[in-house]
Write a structure and sequence with these properties.
The complex is a heterodimer of chains A (about 210) and B (about 240). Chain A has about 210 residues and is mostly helical. Helix content of chain A is about 85%, strand content about 0%. In chain B, α3 crosses α4. The chains are: A mainly alpha (about 210), B alpha/beta (about 240).
Chain lengths: ~210, ~240
């Protein structure tokens, strides 16, 4: 039996699904930011072996398609006897993916501070956490803001790939709707518009931040 | 009384033998200028004195404290030995007052209000009481360096290390910084200055140490050393510096 979908039905369904796109983006960003801070601290304080391990992870996640990463994470858990929902697999995967890029951005921002800033902190007796919190981070955040926001745009767009493991975000719902209505042009057009509305303001913000950090 | 004792100090950067057995005492309240060509090891020696650089042999003592580059010692050292850098190294995201207040608040644990009073007092001392709430970018090089001095003084150090503190300044701004340092010397703060300013070394320092190829080549009371250099190397160095002036 074929159901009739009005334009409003389609938009309403897509908007519902957009919540999941947003939720996944926020989880990936929040989790990714926390994980990145942990890795950043390790990178700045630990020896060569830890650094090699971190750079192996970064290279792995930057050097493979996110689609493969999603499949691998989704199918790897069952191999060790853990069933995971598409939501969990997508979250874990995107957190790891986001950290692999954010770490690069944040680490280079921290490294681009003159060495004298660290030396001044040291001769004043500031501890490592104090140096990070009061001197390094406030300056690094300004440098990293624009590229970080730019990366968030990529992250939001890449959440669409989680449709392949069955996570019901905007793209997945769009595909289902296409199968039901046979109106791919209209639906993918609306879908594109949805992503654009999420991403465009962020792109503008990134450009503004870039302007102000100069 | 010696405030710092350096004994047979040896330092290598890889194969490069930078300090070849330095023996030096700094007396309480004395100001010592270290001069020498670039690459003579003078800045390295200064940076060993507060543990910014490590060394391989010998030892440095400040009172009962052995100075090493161990990070755990940095806090203890910071309570006694201050340092000012060639590039000022102010924190650009903090105002002059906040720059001065940061370490007393975080390291000495002084309450906010007391820190503010301390910052006022220190900035007043370097002649920048009116510039408390300026960011470093709004200050001239000479003013920035004076803020850096105030920041170091706020930790109430017993000794102050100055690493080429006028080298990054326009010539017309050198005077205001040197005046502050001169005042500190006259107040009896122990100073060690690595400097290119020969006139300053002569006028402010009690003692001048001439370093050459990683060793102390000659040392003595400032005026005498400049008037009667004992070695050919120092004589050459002085005449070159004069020619450059």
């Amino acid at each position: 039996m074929m159901m009739e979908f009005t334009l409003w039905d389609i938009i309403r369904n897509l908007l519902f699904a957009m919540r999941w796109t947003l939720a996944l983006s926020l989880v990936a960003l929040g989790g990714g930011a926390i994980f990145t801070l942990v890795l950043l601290t390790l990178r700045l304080t630990c020896g060569a072996r830890v650094n090699r391990a971190i750079s192996l992870y970064v290279n792995l996640f930057q050097g493979t398609p996110i689609l493969m990463q999603l499949f691998l994470v989704f199918f790897a858990f069952p191999l060790v006897g853990i069933e995971v929902s598409p939501w969990t697999a997508a979250s874990v995967c995107l957190i790891l993916y986001a950290s692999a890029y954010l770490l690069d951005i944040w680490y280079s921002a921290v490294r681009s501070l003159p060495r004298g800033q660290w030396e001044a902190c040291r001769v004043l007796g500031l501890s490592f956490p104090q140096t990070m919190r009061h001197v390094v981070m406030p300056q690094a955040i300004r440098l990293a803001a624009a590229p970080s926001v730019g990366f968030i745009v990529q992250l939001i767009k890449n959440t669409s790939l989680t449709s392949v493991i069955g996570f019901e975000e905007m793209t997945k719902v769009g595909m289902v709707l296409t199968n039901a209505t046979f109106e791919p042009f209209k639906i993918y057009g609306l879908l594109a518009l949805g992503y654009f509305l999420l991403c465009f303001p962020l792109s503008r913000l990134a450009r503004r931040l870039e302007g102000s950090s100069r | 009384m010696n405030i710092m004792t350096i004994c047979s100090l040896q330092k290598y950067y890889g194969d490069n033998h930078v300090l070849k057995g330095i023996d030096l005492n700094i007396r309480q309240g004395e100001s010592v200028a270290i001069i020498g060509q670039s690459g003579s090891g003078k800045s390295t020696l200064l940076r060993c004195m507060n543990g910014l650089e490590d060394y391989q042999e010998g030892w440095i003592r400040f009172g009962n404290m052995l100075i090493t580059s161990d990070e755990k010692k940095a806090r203890e050292i910071s309570r006694s030995i201050g340092m000012i850098f060639q590039q000022f190294n102010l924190f650009p995201h903090l105002t002059a007052a906040e720059n001065v207040m940061l370490a007393p608040r975080l390291v000495l644990g002084l309450p906010e209000k007391e820190c503010r009073t301390l910052a006022e007092e220190m900035l007043e001392k370097v002649g920048l009481g009116e510039r408390m709430d300026y960011y470093p970018s709004g200050l001239s090089g000479g003013q920035q360096q004076r803020v850096a001095i105030a920041r170091a003084l706020a930790m109430k150090p017993r000794m102050l290390l100055c690493d080429e503190i006028t080298s990054a300044l326009d010539p017309e701004l050198v005077g205001e910084v040197l005046k502050v340092v001169e005042q500190l010397a006259s107040e009896g703060l122990s100073l060690v200055l690595v400097t290119h300013e020969m006139a300053f070394a002569r006028d402010v320092a009690n003692r001048v140490v001439f370093m050459h190829k990683g060793k102390i080549h000659e040392e003595g009371p400032a005026k005498e050393l400049f008037r009667h250099p004992q070695t050919a190397e120092l004589e050459q160095f002085i005449s070159r510096a004069r020619a450059g002036l």
